[in-house]
Amino acid sequence: MKKICFIVFVAWFQLAGAQERFAKNSNVVLTFSISGDIKDSKTKEVIPNADLYLVNCNKSSVANEDGNFQFNIPKSSFNDQLIISAVGYYSDTILVSQLEKLKQESFHIVLNKETEAEIVLNDMVVLSSKNKAKSDSPETILKKARQHIKDNYYQEPFNQKFFFRAQCKKDGVFSVNEAASIMTYSPNGIRVSKDAAANYFGEILQFKGKAEETSKENWEGIGYFGVVVFRNIVLSSQNVLYEAASFELKKEKTIEYAGKKVYVISFQNLAPDVYSTGFGNPSPKSVSGFIYIDTVSFAVVKFEQYVILNADRSNDSDDVWIQSSVKMTQTYKCVNGKYFVNYCNEKKESRYFSTVEKKQIGEANSNYDLMSEDVNTDKVLPIVRPIDRLKLDVKVVEDPEYWNNNNFIPEIKNNDL
Fold first, then answer.
1. φ, ψ for residue 371 (rounded to 5)?
2. Of 167, 53, 171, 47, the residue nearest 109 (C-alpha)
3. Digit-coded pLDDT (tens) for 305-331
4. Is residue 281 packed enough to be buried (19+ CB in 10 Å), middle (13-18) or exposed (0-12)?
5. How far apart are CA 19 and CA 236, in angstroms?
6. To 5 degrees, how large is the angle CA 36–CA 258–CA 108?
7. Which of 80, 110, 248, 268 is deepest in the core (most CB within 10 A)?
8. For residue 269, what are the CA distances in angstroms to 25, 285, 288, 330?
9. Which helix H or strand E contains 8, and what residues bound it?
């Protein structure tokens, strides 16, 4: 008994020490903040979910659906460069030193849409450069993407810090509105698994949310982090990348993304089920979307998926049926030659219908944003808490100053989910 108690005490002491080290690593550093919006240079339409990142360090941020961004840049990055990129647009580069000197309250950044440098003829891509024509089928492209997973994605232990926000509304009223800064630990690197969440561990560094709105359920609110990880296209084996035989594929075109050319492949699931989509209850009715793959390295750089679920009975009443849909967006960023999760968004819309009244009687919407803040592959600190137990028995005091000096995704102005 004494030996068991001693082991438990040592494990607790190691965990407490790790949490303290993470807290020290997340202390507020000298920063200056920039914010603004990103738009198309000609149409002036907003560019949603554009990426912003520093060249010489792993700090990054993501614009929201309205094209608005906020980025706290370390003053130690004075001589660095800020890259702004979005799918279908040429990237732009701004010197950090110029940003700090301008000291504007709001920056208005415009990106130029790419010009078609390629002609697509009968699934043949004729390049305007000296490269030879390529005619890989979409099936072949996905196969090469699978074969290059170990080459493209980091395979050693690493820490990654995320901003995660969970917002749920029922009939227009928030039932959950939480945000957190989370430090994660992956002991085996980025590898495919039937249960991707089992390869991730994490601790909540900072939390923001009102007590009366905070869900106590482990999988609700920021506890949903594990579900977002579970459905990651590279990590989970239940999607179009690994179950390509279940999908109808079509190579649409090639476009610009972060200074590289990527294939755009559309897909439609011919027989959607839990083994090809990751959705089990209620089961998926239809699944479609796009996958973006680098033409040279065959790294998956972006994934978009739209799922319509089969109608399901409400737990509250057999006379109420629920019709739901889920839209997922995922992007990856390259850090020192290897790709890591950059941004994930999952939106779920549910409509409640009464079989008695024969009309819609309610609705529920949820929105989950996951954004990479930093990646650490040097002096990696292990974490013992499984990601699917992120909220259990955790008490984190909100620190307003922290949220003033670290990165997050701005709220959407109309606050619709």
1. -130, 130
2. 47
3. 999 999 998 877 778 999 999 999 999
4. exposed
5. 28
6. 15
7. 80
8. 44, 9, 6, 18
9. helix 2-25
Closest CA to 159 of 33, 10, 44, 26: 26
d(CA 396, CA 382): 20
**Cα 392 to Cα 383: distance, rounded to the nearest angstrom:** 15
Whole-number Å distance between alpha carbons of 56 and 77: 8
Contact 60, 85 (CB under 8 A): no
Contact indicator for 152, 332 with CB cutoff of 8 Å: no
Structure tokens at 367: 């929105």
d(CA 363, CA 350): 6
pLDDT in tens, 247-279: 999 999 999 888 889 999 999 999 999 888 989
Residues 6+ apart with CB under 8 A from 349: 324, 325, 326, 363, 364, 365
Is the sign of the CA dihedral 411, 331, 74, 259 positive or negative? negative
Q: How far apart are CA 50 and CA 25, in angstroms?
A: 27
pTM: 0.85
> What are the φ/ψ torsions at residue 250 (nearest 5 degrees)?
-150, 130
Token output for 44: 């002036």
Q: Which long-range contacts (CB under 8 A, 24 or more apart) does 135-138 make?
A: 136/251, 137/249, 137/251, 138/249, 138/250, 138/251, 138/263, 138/265
Torsion of CA 224, 230, 233, 236, to 10 degrees: 180
What is the DSSP code string of 15-31?
HHHHHHHHHHHTS---E
**Nearest CA-CA partner of 174 in 163, 164, 166:** 166
